[in-house]
């Protein structure tokens, strides 16, 4: 199985990107993991929030294949402990899917079409985080999940 993290907009902070890179590199020992960034929309001043979500949704759909399993990071999603998240990933791997795509949306969330295409929603917290920090948190949690599944000591530090 491949795990893909798809996100809207680049990471402006070099420090955050360095940390993301650390966990992305560590993950290569466990799973095919990739991060793809969809550039921010240009000329959005005259677009409503709904129009921006629709345009982002079109860009996202172009990045998906028919067999992808899409999971959204959404404030209304299910919350997991790290151990529960590792079990969630194990179930996904056991199900035989080819590619699990985790999606971080733009500043206004997702279009209705993206919600319809998704097979689930996960919430990291009831708090709101910057999209850039969410990338780091998700990458670290995926890494943590694999160390839990392999019974390695990282989770207990």
Explain this structure.
The chain has 157 residues and is α/β, with parallel strands linked by helices. The protein has one domain (2-156): Alpha/beta knot. It is built from 5 helices and 5 strands. It has helices at residues 14-27, 49-62, 82-94, 112-117, 131-149; strands spanning 2-8, 32-38, 69-78, 99-104, 120-122. It has a 5-stranded parallel beta sheet. The longest helix has 19 residues, at 131-149. The radius of gyration is 15 Å and the shape is globular. The two termini are 28 Å apart. The model has no long low-confidence stretch (mean pLDDT 93).
Topology (SSEs and partners):
Elements: E1 2-8, H1 14-27, E2 32-38, H2 49-62, E3 69-78, H3 82-94, E4 99-104, H4 112-117, E5 120-122, H5 131-149
Parallel strand pairs: 1-2, 1-4, 3-4, 3-5
Helix pairs in contact: 1-5, 3-5
Largest sheet: 5 strands, parallel
- Class derived from helix and strand content: alpha/beta
Number of helices: 5
What order do the SSEs take from the amino end to the carboxyl end, as H and E? EHEHEHEHEH
Classify the fold: give the CATH topology.
Alpha/beta knot
Strand content: 15-25%
State the separation between the terminal residues, measured CA to CA: 28 Å
Helix content: 40-55%
**Can you tell me the overall shape?**
globular
* CATH architectural category: 3-Layer(aba) Sandwich
Q: Mind telling me the CATH class?
A: Alpha Beta
């Amino acid at each position: 199985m491949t795990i893909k993290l798809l996100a809207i907009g680049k990471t402006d902070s070099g420090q955050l990107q360095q940390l993301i890179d650390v966990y992305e590199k560590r993950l290569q020992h466990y799973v095919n993991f990739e991060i793809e960034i969809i550039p921010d929309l240009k000329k959005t001043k005259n677009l409503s929030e709904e129009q921006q979500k629709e345009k982002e949704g079109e860009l996202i759909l172009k990045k998906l294949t028919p067999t992808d399993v899409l999971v959204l990071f959404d404030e209304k999603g299910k919350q997991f402990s790290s151990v529960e998240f590792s079990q969630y990933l194990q179930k996904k791997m056991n199900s035989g899917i080819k590619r699990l795509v985790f999606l971080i949306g733009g500043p206004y969330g997702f279009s209705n079409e993206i919600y319809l295409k998704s097979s689930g929603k996960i919430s990291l917290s009831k708090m709101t985080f910057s999209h850039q920090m969410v990338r780091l948190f998700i990458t670290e949690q995926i890494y943590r999940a694999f160390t839990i599944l392999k019974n390695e000591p990282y989770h207990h530090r």
